Amino acid sequence: MPTIYREPDYVYEDLVDLVEGQLRVVELTAINAEIGGPGERLWMTEPGLAVSEVYRLWHKGKGKGKSTDKAPAEGRYWAVDRDDAWDAMPRLREALAGVLARLTRPGSASEYALEPGREERDLAVLAELEAVWLSGLSLLGEAHGPRAVERELNHELFIPIQAELARAGALRSRMLQERYGTGPDAAARAATELGWDIGKARRALAAGDEYRQWVRDGAAHARDRIAVRRPPGETGLPDVLAATLMTAACAYEDVVPGRPSPLPLPDELARWYVFVQGLGACVAVAVEDAYTPDGSPRDYMRVAPVAMVVQAGWTVRDGVIFSPLPYAEYPGGIEYDEEAVRASGGTPLSDESP
Question: How far apart are CA 77 and CA 61, in angstroms?
């Protein structure tokens, strides 16, 4: 999370006021009670605003000793960090792993036996966590409608959970087959020994084959649905890696094959050239502000109008074009310059307005 305010520029009370007095926020008291230290605070922007952010007041840096309320340990300082709500979710879920584990298996959580009422505090944490998540999704819904939100929830939550259940079923299927075999009496033997009805035994034994077929069907669907894009020039990268990067950059774009660039292209950019409907002549680039060495290409590869890349400048690292283009973390895209789009042969959204 990037720091926006810190000591010694502001004292603790001023840092609190910069958030609560200057911004429209709600405090996440339940989450902070679970993961925050003395004096630390956590907020999110009010629902319904045009932004979706999380703010954390905490003591940063390295130092010895214990921090107390409003007084960080020696060598540390108070700071306010800001992050997009969607980007904050992985860190919040990791920090709240204990709470989520208890909510996953409440019937075997010893904390609930030892601390009556603990489940209500955990449910309050979950309600705030859901609020942060929905805040991040709200901008997506405003821009692309409720179907886009549903797709995102499926992609991030339901599909991974369903896949994990299917893998668990496949593992159990293998275990059962190794014990009872695959012959005509396997289901009856499993049902008798495990106390199941015959239908459940048959489904459990068949789950492994069904899962593997599901994977093969999904792979075939991906080959039909996902348009693989390849750089038009020699990049010096292995073919699969080059295609992976180009495909990630063009994932959400309407590519116009074979259309030449109306602008002259330096040789380095020509290797990653693509014409995109609306944006015009583009280059597949790694956006400096979005790139992380271990990140997915889908997170940092984008297409940018040629005129923007030429104006911003670029470098070539390991065969890939890097450019310091203006980037919005949410919804995760380049902030396009309209004049650059026009110069590249594209049509800015403002030109399409009635």
Answer: 6
Predicted local distance difference test score (pLDDT) of residue 327: 76
With respect to residue 254, please indicate whether it lies within any of the assigned structural domains.
yes
Instruction: Please give the helix or strand (H or E) that residue 123 lies within, else none.
Output: helix 118-144
What is the distance between the alpha carbons of residues 193 and 197, in angstroms, rounded to a whole number? 11
Domain span at residue 134 reads 3-144
* SS3 call for 115: coil
At 277, the amino acid letter reads: Q
CB 241 within 8 A of CB 228: no
Q: In what order do the strands lie in the sheet with 25-27?
A: 3-6, 74-84, 53-64, 41-45, 25-27
- For residue 333, give the 3-state DSSP assignment: strand
Signed CA dihedral, 250, 254, 258, 263: sign only:
negative
Instruction: Answer yes or no: are the C-beta atoms of 27 and 41 closer than 8 Å.
Output: yes
Which pLDDT belongs to residue 149? 81
User: Which residue has 């075939």 as its token pair?
Assistant: 220
- Dist CA 27 CA 107 (whole Å): 30
Tokens, residue 217: 């069907």
Q: What is the pLDDT of residue 35?
A: 94
Task: Kindly state whether residue 54 falls inside one of the protein's structural domains.
Answer: yes
Best CA proximity match to 190, nearest among 178, 201, 181, 200: 201
Token readout for 150 is: 């549903």
State how far the Cα of 229 lies from the Cα of 239, in Å rounded to an integer.
11
Q: Quick one: 53 and 175 in the same domain?
A: no
What residues form DSSP beta bridges with 122? none
Q: How many domains does the chain have?
A: 3
Distance CA 341, CA 276 (A): 11
How far apart CA 153 and CA 128 sit, in angstroms, is: 17
pLDDT digits over 263-281, tens only? 999 999 999 999 999 999 9
- Looking at the fold, whether 20 and 122 belong to one and the same domain comes out as yes
Q: Which of 174, 89, 198, 178 is nearest to 137 (CA)?
A: 89
Q: Please state, rounded to an integer, the average pLDDT across all residues of the chain.
A: 90
Rounded CA separation 311/334 (Å): 14
Residues 16 and 89 in one domain: yes
